[in-house]
Amino acid sequence: MKTKASGAKAGVRVRLESKALTLSANCPLDHTNPITCPLHDLRRLSEPDRQKWVKGLTLPDLRYLVLYHETCAIERQRQATRPRQRRVGKTPNVER
After folding, report:
1. Which among 6, 5, 46 has a CA at the least distance from the CA of 24?
2. What gap in Å lies between CA 6 and CA 48, rounded to an integer?
3. Cα–Cα distance between 72 and 56 in angstroms, integer?
4. Residue 6 included in any domain
5. What is the DSSP code string of the chain?
6. Is residue 31 part of a domain?
7. In this structure, is residue 88 part of a structural domain?
8. What are the residues whose beta carbons fall under 8 Å from the beta carbon of 26, sequence distance 6 or more?
């Protein structure tokens, strides 16, 4: 007999596995496979192999993986919207 707590935990796991499987396909921001991403090598595997890998993760590892990517997405969006700083004292090399 399942308790509410175990049912809720199973629901959390299903949602996290779904998110992790989506993340294992490509980067959700630009739909690429950045070499700096911890999932870079995993994305080269077939979908069944990625599913097997995701199923093998512990609940804390799934939480970490999803949180890591959410944090990365927020930081990348922040950097994209931040105005570029001009370098003071540098002039372009222009031939005269």
Report:
1. 46
2. 27
3. 23
4. no
5. ---HHHHHHHHHHHHHHHHHHHHHHS-TTTSS--TTSTTTTGGGS-HHHHHHHHHTS-HHHHHHHHHHHHHHHHHHHHHHHSPPPPPTT-------
6. yes
7. no
8. 32, 33, 43
The total number of structural domains in the chain stands at 1
Q: What is the pLDDT along the chain (96 residues), one digit of tens a residue?
A: 567 767 788 899 999 999 999 999 999 889 999 999 999 999 999 999 999 999 999 999 999 999 999 999 999 889 888 777 766 666 566 565
Contact assessment for residue 73 and residue 37, using Cβ atoms and an 8 Å cutoff: no
φ and ψ at residue 72, rounded to 5 degrees: -60, -45
Give domain status of residue 43, yes or no: yes
- Residues of the domain holding 38: 25-81
